[in-house]
Amino acid sequence: MTTTQRSAILSQSDIKRRMRRMALEVAERNTEEKSLVVAGVEGNGMVVARKLIDELAQVLNIDIQVATIRLDKKNPVAATIDGDVEITGKNILVVDDVADTGRTLLFALKPFLDRMPKTIQTLVLVERSHKLFPVTSDFVGLSLSTTLQDHIQVDTEGDEITGAFLE
Question: pTM (2 decimals)?
């Protein structure tokens, strides 16, 4: 039986500081806006999105709506948006835990394109530098160069992000 070695790359306190910094960056970029739709990728992306919304509420005085992007990461062609949220003419922030090849973020953008948003921005807690798809993250908690064999795992417990690990 093979065991996977895990190296901590972000502790829970590191994550809290980085989430605060990213919230300040998002607030700075959206200071003139009236509203923002924060759309998290189902799973850990939604946990990151909720933490971001908590931080944004402290620094940005605008209407923040939340939506969930549902997609099968192995076959992401049929991405959908859950939530009673108006997209047309709105500023959208797509949130996920890890950006690896850019594939998930690319397909997560797809359901927004038909609805004519004003802007689409992306945010990830950890970004790897192995892009296969032309998607870059506007806001990044940690950018990390790894080998193609390495895997980044963001651990959560309920609504808490407990750490990020290199496996």
Answer: 0.92
